[in-house]
Amino acid sequence: MGEWREYKLKDLALKIGSGATPSGGSNNYKEFGISLIRSQNVLDFSFTDNGLAFIDNEQAYALNGVEVKENDILFNITGDSVARCCIVPKNYLPARVNQHVAIIRTNDLSNYRYIFYYLQYLKPELLINAEIGATRNAITKAMLENIEISLPPLPEQTAIASILSSLDDKIDLLHHQNATLEKMAETLFRQWFPANAGQVIEEAKDEWDIDTLGNVFDIGIGRTPPRKEHHWFSKNPTDVKWVSIKDLGTSGVYISSVSEYLTPDAVKKFSIPVIPENTVMLSFKMTIGRLAISTENMLSNEAIAHFKVKKDSKLFSEFLYLYLKTYQWEQLGSTSSIVEAINSQMIKEMEIFIPEEKTLNAFKEAVEAYFKKIKSNQAQIRTLTALRDNLLPKLMSGEVNVEI
Question: Which pTM does this prediction carry?
């Protein structure tokens, strides 16, 4: 192992700087054009195009000082997502960033991927610093510039980064594979059931039954203990998993990881309904239509409905998942009115078609392999993520040596 030296980030960077708001602000975003990367696009270890905005050439020209280039590190500097960072994907260039995202461009002394992983390694410390003396979580340019980084010789940096990025590449591949499998399952659902939730329910075939979700499923709604009574809430994985809308947004088809737990005493005191394994969950407040299937007994907050399959029902969870996934929520009203007006009773009164048993069984057999593979991939993702997270501090501290 070569000699490690201490640097400040400003000594290793060609550029450290945040973006700006385009002229006209969010009201002047375009449907396509040059990517405008915002804090919601920057996740830990990865980039998402969910909510990606676009600006035109004129707006982009005014933001040339915050142009994103290949191999740049994107780092969130304000808000609830502060200290999240990722490497900009090539396929979203050219791009600009807004005022909540910083660009870090490294020099020849460092491997950009090594610096990226070192920032991930420092995240707990950076989060503490972001809360000091600020009404809103924030990391200033000066704080970024003065981050201290331990740097081995360049070949060693490259070797360390290669180990970690190989794990992230595999994780990314599995995520993309799952997205493809889910799309294939949705396509198959539409082919088998053209009168699906995206069309008028009366188009269902004559031999299909029409019923309400409340009749076909036991629908429960989660609960939240009083937030001021902190002792009911936990970060301890031995307590009971408590699903939020945010958790549904990051889970994939099957949910197994949550950001918060409730104590067993909270479950008992507030009679919080338990969500059994293999139960579909749906967010119906604030953010409408997020879905996941439980992998074990869980709980949820009051913005999430869960659908337990009744013993005498012919339907199964994967069918309901695809039905709700393809449901056109605007059928319930305008987007703005849905957010305000949708409630548990409306969910229970939603109609669902029920094909004859032979067709249902054949469809179940057709999609079973897709969902089985998705579930297997998600288990691999959890294993690889745990391995990466375990290796990261050991590699960055020099506790584990690498072969050059």
Answer: 0.86
Question: Would you call 311 helix, strand, or coil by DSSP?
Answer: coil
Q: Give which of 290, 259, 253, 269 is closest to 367, Cα–Cα.
A: 253
Tell me the percentage of the chain whose pLDDT exceeds 70. 92
pLDDT band at 338 (very low <50, low <70, confident <90, very high): low
Instruction: Measure the CA–CA gap between 107 and 296, rounded to whole angstroms.
Output: 47
Whether 82 shows a pLDDT value over 60: the answer reads yes
Task: Render 119-158 in DSSP notation, one character per residue.
Answer: HHHTHHHHHHHHHTT-SS-B--HHHHHT-EEEE--HHHHH
Q: Which long-range contacts (CB under 8 A, 24 or more apart) does 238-243 make?
A: 239/263, 239/264, 240/264, 240/267, 240/297, 240/298, 240/299, 241/296, 241/298, 241/299, 242/298, 242/299, 242/300, 242/301, 243/275, 243/281, 243/292, 243/294, 243/298, 243/299, 243/300, 243/301, 243/304
279 with 307: CB under 8 angstroms?
Answer: yes
Closest by CA to 118, choosing from 402, 400, 397, is: 397
Amino acid at site 86:
C
Asked if residues 47 and 10 have their Cβ atoms less than 8 Å apart, the reply is no
Q: What are phi and psi for residue 280, nearest 5 degrees?
A: -75, 135
| Among the listed residues 401, 388, 392, the one whose alpha carbon sits nearest the alpha carbon of residue 167 | 388
Strand 240-243 to 299-300 pairing: parallel
Chain centroid to Cα 163, Å, comes to: 24
User: Any idea how long the chain is?
Assistant: 404
